[in-house]
Amino acid sequence: MHVPDGFLDAPTSVGTGVVAAVAVGIALKGARRELDDRTAPMAGLVAAFIFATQMLNFPVASGTSGHLLGGALAAVLVGPFTALLCMSTVFLVQCLLFADGGVTALGTNILLMGVITVVVGWTVFKGLQAVLPKRLSMVAPAAGIAALVSVPVAALGFVLLYALGGTADLSLDHLATAMVGVHVLIGIGEGVITALAVGSIVAVRPDLVYGARPVLEKRELVVRTRDQAPA
Predict the structure, then answer these.
(1) Is residue 49 over pLDDT 70?
(2) End-to-end alpha-carbon separation of the chain, Å?
(3) Of 230, 202, 193, which is closest to residue 72 (Cα–Cα)?
(4) Residue 131 CB: number of other CB atoms within 10 A?
(5) CA 155 – CA 117 distance, rounded (Å)
(6) For the whole model, what pTM was predicted?
(7) What is the mean pLDDT of the chain?
(8) Residue 66 pLDDT level (bands cut at 50, 70, 90)
(9) What is the rounded CA–CA span in Å between residue 36 and residue 34?
(10) What is the pLDDT of residues 212-225, one digit of tens each?
């Protein structure tokens, strides 16, 4: 989904750049409330993991390939504000060092693959947490579903931007069908990877998963005395 230079006209690219810059500014302030001795080291690991997995493509259909976006995964692991900073850092490095996405399209890529996936993923995740049983076993499935939903929504965001400032004469109906169809399949893969990644961490260190903290806070602490200890 990396958008190259020239795919969108200048006003649209400038507009997405402004929105992305504002979002990153808000994230810088919001991340202060999320970062602590557990979240800060995780943020670096999350950024490195997303960078590595975005470099690996998997086949989807008709010669099309896809890769992990990671917005929902990052939001669940380190919080939405810190997640956006991680994603923005990944896109900046990819753009400047690997020519993956254009320099003038950096704001567009941050908006589509960073802001939208993080906001949608986190919103869906918190919505599911509100209705699902408050158990640690529910964190990974909720994260997987959130990741699945976030990918086609980001694809729809691209279609909307292309309708506003696309530089090629493409049918929006065909573009929307192709983008959403392919990215639903990519979203399924992303959902599985996200659920497995979150589930593996929750199984050993649930306190490291930002999205699991509300569940941990509601758990009762049981203290056994020596007389009550099982034989």
Answers:
(1) yes
(2) 58
(3) 193
(4) 8
(5) 10
(6) 0.88
(7) 88
(8) low
(9) 6
(10) 998 888 765 444 55
Q: Which residues of 13-47 are buried (b: 16+ CB within 10 A; e: fewer)?
A: bebbbeebeebbeebeebbeebbeeebeebbeebb
Whole-number Å distance between alpha carbons of 169 and 24: 32
Reported for 51-60, long-range contacts at CB under 8 A and 24+ positions apart, including other chains, are: 51/90, 51/93, 51/94, 53/193, 54/90, 54/94, 54/100, 55/98, 58/189, 60/182, 60/185, 60/186, 60/189
Which is nearest to 186 in space by CA: 71, 106, 43?
71
> Which stretch, 38-42, 98-102, 184-188, has highest mean pLDDT?
184-188
Higher pLDDT, 113 or 172: 113
Percent residues over pLDDT 70 in the chain: 90
What's the token pair of residue 28?
């810088």
CA distances from 10 to 6, 7, 66, 99, 170 (A): 8, 9, 27, 19, 18
For CA atoms 145, 150, 155, 156, the dihedral sign is: positive
- Residue 63: pLDDT over 90: no
Tokens at 204, concatenated: 């050993």
Residue 70 pLDDT class (50, 70, 90 cuts): very high
